Amino acid sequence: MGQVMIAFLVGGAICVIGQVLLDFVKLTPAHVMSILVASGAILDGLGLYDPLIDFAGAGATVPITSFGHALYHGAWQEAERDGLIGLITGIFEVPSAGISAAIVFSFFASLIFRPKG
């Protein structure tokens, strides 16, 4: 099976989990997002998220679970280096590039596209 198909199936499976939680468990979108972020952090803490990224590529790095992975990864790396202060600052260091990119690209998109009202 090709790498693109694996990424599609894994990313789709993560999205299906979120949709099932929305439709059948009747959680709010904020609850589902929090569960998926926490799941990514837990899977990274158990050492399972990096192998998932190696296997699925973008199928594991694009969904919101990857944000939990990045938060945990950053906090753990900085905690090992700087102790308790690193634990706090690390959650901002690793995911900051993705968040910054989202803000910059959103700004440029707002300059190009106008909402219809």
TrEMBL record:
Keywords: Membrane, Transmembrane, Transmembrane helix. The keyword Oxidoreductase does not apply. InterPro entries: Spore_V_AE, SpoVA. The chain crosses the membrane at residues 6-25, 32-49, 84-113. Pfam families: SpoVAC_SpoVAEB (PF03862). This is Stage V sporulation protein AE. It comes from Aneurinibacillus aneurinilyticus ATCC 12856.
